[in-house]
Automatic annotation (TrEMBL):
The name this protein goes by in its record: Conserved oligomeric Golgi complex subunit 5
UniProt source species: Homarus americanus
Topology within the bilayer: Peripheral membrane protein
InterPro entries: Cog5 (IPR019465), COG5_helical (IPR048485), COG5_N (IPR049176)
Domain Conserved oligomeric Golgi complex subunit 5 helical: start-end pairs: 169-374
Length: 787
């Protein structure tokens, strides 16, 4: 059909619905009736039909040859179909004849097969019945013999159970009596095995435990039976812990128990506290024994399980049990024990304030019981864990597929710390005890410093040391507890230092050296003396009374000593600095005296005025300001440093005196001799001062050298244009010999420049010697000429 006709129909709203795929005659007719005039619509439809007829006639006329060819082909197809129909009828007739010949034999074979299957099932059932009767008879013989062989009886029961597992043997009259006997026998064997297991566990008899385990294995209930044994151990231990911490049971043990009405708290009477406390600790000691026995029984069961193997598969009983558990036997039991202890201690502390108080106050005694318990169990724990590790290795070698699961179990077992788990059960009690202990250590320190204007008395310090000793001795039962208490002791000593630091006066009143000691200086001395006493007591206690404690504990205790030393040093240092400044000011006055005189008569035994003043000041400082401090290494070090500083300043300024005559030399030499006497109030043996004293002794002969121009030449400070005090301060600020050698080199270079500027023909005779000494010194310190 021409596409133009379809296009016209598609564009015409009247004909377009007839071309739609979902065209519905009834609905379209209904729409036409409701929407337009029927006559007009019929007329348009008639026109469309006519148009289609003309188009069909046109198409037929154009393709009549093709249509004739198709009509001829239809006739040929009809002939072929007729032939096929005839052949199909022939095939159906053959099939029917074959069916008649096959169906009857098939039905006979089917009936015979059914009969054969039933015969075989009957034979199998008869064989099972016969076997059951034989096993029942054997079982009766095994149970009736003396002594009873419950292991073989368990094998018979296991085989009977296997025979009836896949086949329903109920309802057979021949087996009803035997089945009742078997059920009764199984119950009896299980009970006997349970009794034997309990007896073997109690008596530590491996033979009885091994027999019971073999019976459980033969009955196919090994895993649940072992779990029941462990659950029974844990349940008994749970009852033991509950009874140990039961306040009612404790009160019943005490004499003169008072009955309490509903709602009243059970409290020990005034005369019952001691008995109540003794009963509590007696129960706790017994509880530790119960825990130990439970773990020993677990170890005993573990050993037997590790020895027993299936006679057929050779699988170890322990491996079979632990395959059904997430952890080994010891870890499982120990986690339950620690859980019970944690829960019961928390419950007891919540229900009875007296139990909580006794446990908190006597916590070291409790942790000692824990420590003794773990020392008894440590070997058992290591033995079981080693066996498990060896077994895990063998399992991984034999079964690679279970490697990830076994690795996970091994990691959990290795990460589990049984000793730490045991200590964690006492964490609330330990925290409470440490809080009380910390209060006992810190409260005395706060109380002894209640008065802000005076250091604590000696008896108060003795009381603090006694408390420290007591706390450390009580905590010595446990290393970890000792370390924690030692940290608290160090904290109390630090607090003591802080309180003392608050008393130390740092104003000018504490460092004046003009008149008598001020109240501030007396207070600082009292604080330092008390710190010294505390230090000596702590050191003596650590080396004598507490010598039995572990070295880390005593080290923590002695860690507070540097803080005490630092505080003592900082409290004394301002006074020492003030004395040093006064000594330097007095020594500086030597430059105001005349040492240029040439008269040598009567001057060899006299000393200078400044030295007389220095002797008097040092004597007064030692008697008034330093004598109020108790002798100690810190004070001795400060005084020695002060004496060394005095000698250094004296030698320094003596070397800077300009000019010096022969009489001045003699007077200065006498000053050197008197200087040794001047510092005797600070140091009875000046030779102990070391290098500064040796410099003083070595400097005196240099005064009588013959090179006159050296004495008359300007000093290094004069060359740089500095005053004597500035040069002295520079020497104090530059203790490095390299810097001092650089300054000497600068002075010599300035001398060379002045000689050249004056157009002199030669240097002083001492210049080559000085230059040679300078070069040696620079070489010794690695200073080059270009540095």
């Amino acid at each position: 059909m021409s596409s133009s006709v379809f296009k016209e129909f598609q564009e015409d709203n009247t004909y377009a619905p007839f071309l739609a795929d979902d065209f519905d005659v009834q609905s379209h007719a209904s729409q036409l009736v409701q929407g337009v005039i029927i006559a007009e619509q019929l007329n348009k439809l008639t026109l469309g039909i006519n148009r289609l007829e003309r188009e069909i006639e046109s198409q037929v006329g154009s393709h009549y040859e093709d249509l004739l060819s198709q009509a001829t082909g239809v006739e040929t197809l009809e002939d072929v179909l007729n032939t096929m129909h005839t052949r199909i009828q022939t095939l159906l007739a053959g099939v029917e004849r074959l069916r008649v010949r096959v169906v009857d034999p098939y039905q006979r074979v089917e009936r015979h097969t059914l009969v054969l299957g039933r015969l075989q099932a009957t034979c199998e059932l008869l064989r099972r019945v016969i076997r059951c009767l034989m096993l029942s008879q054997r079982l009766q013989q095994q149970l009736s013999s003396e002594p009873r062989d419950i292991t073989k009886a368990a094998i018979s029961l296991s085989e009977l159970d296997h025979l009836g597992r896949d086949v329903d043997l109920t309802g057979l009259e021949v087996l009803e009596r035997d089945q009742r006997l078997v059920r009764q026998a199984r119950s009896d064997v299980e009970k006997q095995a349970v009794v034997m297991m309990d007896r073997g566990m109690e008596l530590q008899n491996q033979t009885q435990v091994g027999t019971a385990l073999q019976v459980f294995h033969n009955l196919g209930i090994l895993v649940p039976s072992v779990e029941k044994v462990l659950d029974s151990l844990i349940a008994r231990l749970n009852r033991s812990v509950s009874l140990t911490l039961d306040v009612n049971a404790l009160m019943q043990i005490s004499q003169d128990t008072r009955k309490s009405g509903p709602g009243k708290a059970i409290m020990p009477g005034p005369g019952q506290s001691v008995q109540f406390r003794a009963s509590l600790w007696s129960n706790l000691e017994k509880l530790m024994d119960d825990i130990y026995h439970a773990c020993v029984q677990t170890s005993h069961l573990h050993k037997v399980l590790a020895k027993k193997r299936d006679p057929v598969t050779h699988v170890c009983f322990l491996e079979e049990v632990q395959c059904h558990s997430n952890s080994d036997l010891f870890t499982k039991v120990w986690r339950n024990i620690t859980r019970i202890l944690t829960e019961e201690f928390a419950k007891a502390a919540q229900d009875s304030t007296f139990i909580r108080q006794y446990l908190e106050v006597d916590y070291p005694k409790l942790i000692r019981l824990y420590g003794d318990l773990w020392r008894r169990l440590e070997g058992i724990s290591m033995e079981m864990r080693n066996v498990n590790a060896d077994m895990s290795a063998s399992v991984l070698d034999s079964d690679v597929q279970d490697k990830e699961e076994e690795d996970k179990k091994d990691r959990e077992t290795q990460e589990f710390d049984p000793e730490q788990a045991l200590r964690c059960t006492l964490v609330p009690l330990e925290e409470a005890y440490l809080s009380r202990s910390r209060s006992r250590l810190l409260d005395p320190v706060n109380l002894m410093f209640a008065a802000q204007d005076a250091p604590p008395a000696k008896d108060e310090v003795d009381a603090l040391i006694k408390t420290i000793t007591s706390e450390l001795n009580v905590s010595a039962v446990d290393k970890s507890l000792s370390k924690t208490v030692a940290r608290n002791v160090a904290e109390s000593l630090q607090l003591f230092c802080v309180k003392c630091r608050q008393l130390v006066v740092t104003s000018g009143e504490a460092s004046q050296v003009i008149g008598s000691p001020t109240p501030a200086q007396v207070l600082n001395a009292a604080v330092v003396n008390q710190l010294l006493y505390v230090r000596s007591q702590v050191e003596r206690t650590a080396s004598a009374t507490l010598a039995h404690l572990p070295q880390p504990v005593t080290s923590m205790l002695l860690q507070a000593l540097p803080s005490i030393d630092s505080l003592m040093s900082s409290a004394v240092q301002p006074l020492v600095d003030s004395i040093t400044d006064a000594i330097e000011a007095i020594i500086l006055t030597m430059h105001s005296e005349d040492f240029s005189g040439g008269d040598t008569g009567g001057t060899d035994s006299q000393c200078s005025l400044y030295l007389k003043e220095l002797q008097g000041f040092i004597t007064r400082a030692a008697d008034d300001y330093l004598a109020i401090y108790q002798p100690s290494n810190i004070i001795k070090e400060k005084i020695h440093t002060l004496a060394c500083r005095c000698l250094d300043l004296f030698v320094r300024h003596a070397s800077l005196l300009r000019p010096i005559g022969e009489g001045g030399k003699l007077r200065l030499a006498a000053d050197f001799a008197q200087m040794e006497l001047a510092i005797s109030p600070l140091c009875s043996r000046p030779s102990e001062l070391g290098r500064p004293y040796r410099i003083v002794r070595s400097f005196r002969p240099l005064l009588f050298q013959t090179v006159q121009h050296v004495i008359a030449s300007p000093s290094i400070g004069d060359t740089a244009g500095w005053s004597v005090s500035r040069y002295s301060n520079w020497l104090d600020e530059h203790q490095d010999e390299r810097e001092r050698l650089q300054l000497v080199r600068g002075a010599l270079e300035a001398y060379v420049a002045s000689v050249r500027s004056r157009h002199l023909t030669q240097f002083a005779s001492v210049y080559p010697s000085m230059l040679k000494l300078l070069e040696k010194g620079m070489a010794a310190y690695g200073i080059t000429a270009n540095t």
